[in-house]
Amino acid sequence: MIAATRAEPDGRWVLPKENAGAWVERLLEGAQVIAPVAGPEGEEVYDVVRTPHQVLWDFVNPLDPPKRFVLPQTEPLARIEKTDGRFRVEPIHDEAPRVFLNLRNCDLQGFHFLRRMHAADLPDPSFLRRFDSLTLVSLACTRPCPWGFCICCEGGPFLREGYDLQLTDLGGVFLAEVGSAKGRKALEAGQGLFRPATEAEQVRRLELEQQALRSFGPETCHFGSAMRRISTRRVADELWEAMGPWCLECGGCNLACPTCYCFSVKDRSEEPWRGNAGGEGSAEQVWTRCRIWDSCQYQAFTLEASGHNPREAKRERIKRRFYHKVSAQYYRKDQALGCVGCGRCILVCMGTTDMPSVVAAIRKGRWEGGRL
Amino acid sequence: MKDLLIPSVATILATRDETPDTRTFALRFRDDEEHRSFSFRPGQFVELSVFGAGEAPFCLASSPTRPEHIEVTVRRCGVVTNALHALGPGDEVGLRGPCGNGFDVEAAQGWDLLFVAGGIGLPPLRGLIWNVLDQRSRFGHITILYGARTPADLVYKDELRVWSAMDGVEVKVTVDRGAPGWEGNVGMVPVLFDQVELRPERTVAYVCGPPVMIKFVVQDLLMRKFAPERVISTLERMMQCGVGKCNHCCVGHRYLCRDGPVFSFAEIREMWE
Amino acid sequence: MVSERVGTLSESRGGTGARGVCPFCSCGCGLRLLHDGLHTVGSAPVLKHPVSQGRLCARGWASHEPPAWGGRLLAPEIREGGERRRAGWDEALERAARELRALLEVGKAVGVLVSGRCTNEEAYLAAKLARGPLRTGHLDDPLGASYRALLAGLCPEGPPGEGGRALEAVEHSRQILLLEGDLSVTHPRAALAVLRAVRRGARLVTLGLARTPLSQVAAVHLSLDPLRPFALPPDLLGALGGGNGRPPEAPPTVLLAPFTSDPRIVAATVRALAEVLGSSGPDGGTGARFLPLPFRANTRGVLEGGVAPDRLPGGLALDDPQALARLRQVWGMDPWPRPGLDAAALLEQVRGLVVVGEDPPRSLPAPAKAREALKGLESLVVLDAYASATSDAATVVLPVAALQETEGTLTSLEGRIQGFGPAVPPPGRARPGWEVLFRLLELLGAPSGRAALGAVRAEMAEVVPGFRSLVGSSAEGEDMPAVARAGRTPEPDLRRAGAQGGGDAFGSHVLVLAGAFDWDDDLMVDASPTLRRDGASRRKLFPQGSVTMNPADARALGIRSGWSVRLRSRQGEAVVPVSLGTSVEPGVLLVPFAFREALSGVLGGEAAQRVEVERT
Ligand SMILES: Cc1cc2nc3c(=O)[nH]c(=O)nc-3n(C[C@H](O)[C@H](O)[C@H](O)COP(=O)(O)OP(=O)(O)OC[C@H]3O[C@@H](n4cnc5c(N)ncnc54)[C@H](O)[C@@H]3O)c2cc1C
Ligand code: SF4
Ligand code: SF4
Ligand code: FES
Question: Are C13 and A48 within 8 A, CB to CB?
Fold first, then answer.
């Protein structure tokens, strides 16, 4: 297989399903493997796997976003120690090698969105270090998920680039497409487990993609005209106002969104846990400076010390969310729409103001209460 | 590569009370090398940490031409600022920066300069004023107009005196409400416009202060035919990261911590969200 | 570089996370608590949870924050000669028992307060402590009075929708009457149920003292008269029926949340509603189904566990001979059968107090009075995870695990009893609350069984019918039978309840002092860096409190937001800043819950009263 890889560097390979477990076993030798597994309520969640048979190969995309693994809800940035009135600030770095297995392509697009944004302008080395230690293995969706609309956002279901490795379930085997050197390495870890794909298997992969595209359900989201209106301030304030009561300010749309990354920075006192873990040293006081998820839908997000709040009204905050995600101004800045079509906001919204509902309302110029 | 959000330790060298709730802190990075390599423009700001209490943005109130220490002038108004006021010389804080765009001093070369400040709006201009005064010959006439609510709220009282004693520098001060012993002007800052000679066509105006004050002053200046590109102001928003990542400070797709906080009025006019 | 304790991919350390139940409101949303082995570091929604169905409100999403960020009690402490010092568990427990026993021996009154953020197991043991060895009926939940006020005389058939599916029933209702403070704040998941019903075409009528987000989507909003809320708007039935004077065709669903913090007024209003809607009686009425909404995650379970001055565990009547006999048998001692005082009243009377997971000044209508009372106690034994004004005043502090650090069950507003396990161990030397209560019971001489949660549950199952399902491991999703009906609440004395006669011409405005509960001043909210910001900012900007005024009133007075007004009532006068909000009706001034005490000192404790308002 090594020889074949050299001869055909970007070739296509297949992994017979009976070899999948053995491959995961090999991946586990060199890295932490994160994959969809069964959660406590029997639903799919992403987690670090310990044994290969935890990995789900046929699953609905987990509601809780995989972005937690590159941008945790509570992320320790530095340990701050005070001794004799003097401070020591020790950055906490994380560059453990990890393989993200069976990522859906919408989420893969979300990951790249986050990487672009952390690399742009002033790069954030702490994020980039963690991200770049990650190998991204996506599993293309041969059956669209019930609520996704990735076809409206260049988010999937199949991708041409961006993955290190893209898998497609062909029935008895997974077809593997290599997208990068990291992907090739993951493939090579499975030496002897993969074999080159046949012509027929490659054709099958294309057929499945066409079939998947055709079978998208009614869930769509037409961004074009909404983007034109938002970018040119042609969405009436009354429309945002009308949506107000239908949003319960839970922030879920941001927190569960693969492209949202707003945060605050706070110091957590480690006092309560000193002694629990042992080996504390002699510091009088210890804090952990943490980056914690925040949401632009929370009233306090822009609240200033004076009490002045430029986005006090809910309509201002809803408007803000869609400006960041759907305006041409941000499209230019972020090089992408702020939505990958995963459909999570549809499920997570405590109200009814999810992405497709609001985009439709902007297009129609009318708010009728959103999703049922 | 240096971490984006991790502060370095700095030491408070001295403090000076400006008003009952405002204090200036002179700071120096604990590491000499780091201190020497810290360069900034007036109008930029730092993220200052009181460890355990948190982090908040403050304008650099000193001038890059006086690099022995850096100064911030802080009004006590919340968690971080209260914790900072409880510290004194010798105590340590965290510093990160400089952040933001700062004033474009080069572009103002050869122009007359008009500084209009209200209340706690003087600190960001102070760095610029000293910077300009330290290279006096490169600029035309300098006018400093400053207003505060009461005489007790005036900051940098000594320096106002020093500046007004300088050649080619005109300083006028007013308070909204007088107090016993106050013999100066009473009224909002714009009352001072009629006491000085304004040369809109040759002047760059810098306006800093509370939002309402900025609004009135800018209106007044535009009426007096100042060009919007040459009316320069700073904007304020809630900030967390100061480096364009956390999204707290956006106005539309502009980030005040990166694209600002300094903007010309011509730019401010175009901002919406 | 990576510190062992705070690995960066912390969220992945705890397997798939611990099964959690949201500790804030009583909706009972399920979540996954993520942790790094020591700290709780994330909250994740659970798509298949029957209540939350993948949703969480802002509080649910931050439910991992309070234990990790709040001011924790870490070691037992005892007060000695005015000073507090750390002590060992045995010493502190023995001290607590000795203090309480000493008071009992000289016949001084003791009481027990239990919060709605305790588990069912803790609540039951606390009730047993009171009615067992402490021989007292002075036993209450400080927010329980307003829940009992909703139940009084209502719910003959229990909450609507069989099988703990009351919220689902709301979603499919055709007519909804909502009595609320602001449901979208107090019970977001229930608010979603209402929104869904409206989206499906239901007719919503909102009823309250303030305009709320839900009142904006209602077909009709009816304002209650702040002086006489129980004198319901005359057109209520017609409004519900379709606005043309006809009563509703189908039985309406009535959601009841305390709309003011004065339980007497809540009780009177609910009673009036029951009369209008004819909930009871064979000859019809509207057949309305009532859904009372307790505030805290376990306000209902705490009541059903027996925490009330006039109930036995199981919510049974004090004079129920069978219940008493069963308790005697199970406890091995006579249960105290007499009623006691409610939370507000008992604080004034007792000399010794055990407080479990509660900071009474934050929950009771009169915070200053509560603080004073706590200071004057001879013995104050506080079991809590968080430091508070109450633990500051304690003679004995017993640090217990936060909800996220313990095993237990909570009973939601629908009556679902949901179990959860500890996500992380408690910090410092804190112990699970049930264990501490168990040992306290032992030390005070209650015959005890095995010190295991399973044994406690088995005991509960014998005396609390609804807890039968607790035995064994699957506490999930079981339903309680109908809510307690026993024990008639006394007729509210409406004169004392702050109702000044309607025909009174004094005053330009009506001041509502008893604003409805919101989360602004909640201890767990305050312990969360994400959630505390709004409330902390308001308290900082208005250290002396504020009143909310309709912008039209402000215009008429020529004042702006932040300016102060002088309020004159018959009791006195006060100067307060105003904040503006269209939520209040013109002519009404509303004091937010967090500021309820700022004015009561000067203007008297009336829930509502007429005032003259002037610019200062
Ligand atoms: C670019 C810039 C320059 C500033 N320069 C100065 C200065 O020179 N002197 C001075 O006294 N003040 C200055 N401020 C305002 C100062 O940052 C706030 O007063 C300060 O953040 C309040 O922090 P706190 O913790 O005491 O208040 P809290 O109300 O307790 O605020 C909590 C947190 O919210 C954030 N925050 C709240 N209000 C603001 C705000 N207005 N701007 C930014 N972040 C906020 C901070 O992160 C703060 O730590 C400046 C603000 C900005 C944006
Ligand atoms: S739009 Fe929906 S998901 Fe977002 S904050 Fe509002 S209620 Fe929550
Ligand atoms: S609605 Fe209530 S139970 Fe659900 S997440 Fe919010 S506070 Fe928690
Ligand atoms: S302060 Fe974080 S983006 Fe500007």
Answer: yes
The Å distance, Cα B246 to ligand 4 centre, comes to 5
Question: Bigger pLDDT: A7 or A352?
Answer: A352
Position C155 scores a pLDDT of 53
User: What does the longest C-alpha to C-alpha distance in chain A come to?
Assistant: 72
Please indicate whether, in this complex, the C-beta atoms of A250 and C61 are within 8 angstroms of each other: yes
Domain enclosing residue C38, as ranges:
11-69
Model confidence band, residue C493 (pLDDT cutoffs 50, 70, 90): very low
Query: In sequence order, which ranges of A8-161 are alpha helices (DSSP H)?
Result: 20-30, 105-119, 125-132
**Per-chain mean pLDDT for chain C:** 85
Would residue C3 count as lying in a domain?
A: no
**What confidence score (pLDDT) does residue C252 get?**
86
CB contacts of B252 in chain A (<8 Å) are 323, 329
Question: For residue C208, what is the domain's CATH number?
Answer: 3.40.228.10
Chains that touch B (3 or more CB pairs under 8 A): A
Give chains near C: 3+ CB pairs under 8 A.
Answer: A
Nearest chain B Cα to A237, which residue?
Answer: B273
Provide the residue ranges of all domains of chain A, joining segments of one domain with +: 11-69+76-214, 223-264+294-364
CA distance B10 to B69: 10
CB contact (8 A) between residue A76 and residue C38: no
Checking if the pLDDT of C405 tops 60, the result is yes
Task: Name the minimum distance, in Å, from the CA of C101 to any CA of chain A.
Answer: 32
Mean pLDDT value of segment B101-128: 91
Tokens 């055909």 belong to residue: A8
Secondary structure letter of residue B150 according to DSSP: S
Residue among A86, A122, A285 minimizing CB distance to B92: A86
Closest by alpha carbon to B113, among B95, B93, B133?
B133
| Interface pTM, i.e. ipTM | 0.94
Inter-CA distances, C22 with A267, C43, C121, C573, Å = 24, 9, 17, 42
Ligand 4 atom at minimal distance to the Cα of residue B246 = 2
Q: How confident is the model at residue A2 (pLDDT cuts 50, 70, 90)?
A: very low
Window from A320-329, C80-89, C148-157 with minimum mean pLDDT: C148-157
CATH for B8-99?
2.40.30.10
pTM for the model stands at 0.93
The CA-atom distances, in angstroms, between A114 and each of A69, A364, B59, C408 are: 12, 31, 30, 39
Q: Please count the residue pairs, one from chain A and one from chain C, whose beta carbons lie less than 8 angstroms apart.
A: 207
Closest chain B CA to residue A83? B92
Within 10 angstroms of residue B54's Cβ, the number of other Cβ atoms is 20
Domain B106-234: which topology? Rossmann fold (3.40.50)
Choose one of B27, B73, B236 to mutate for the ligand 1 pocket test, by most ligand atoms within 8 angstroms of C-beta: B236
In a domain, C217, yes or no: yes
Indicate which CATH number applies to the domain containing C52: 2.20.25.90
pLDDT in tens, C358-386: 999 998 888 888 999 999 999 999 999 99
Q: Residues of A with CB below 8 A from C17's CB? A: 39-40, 45
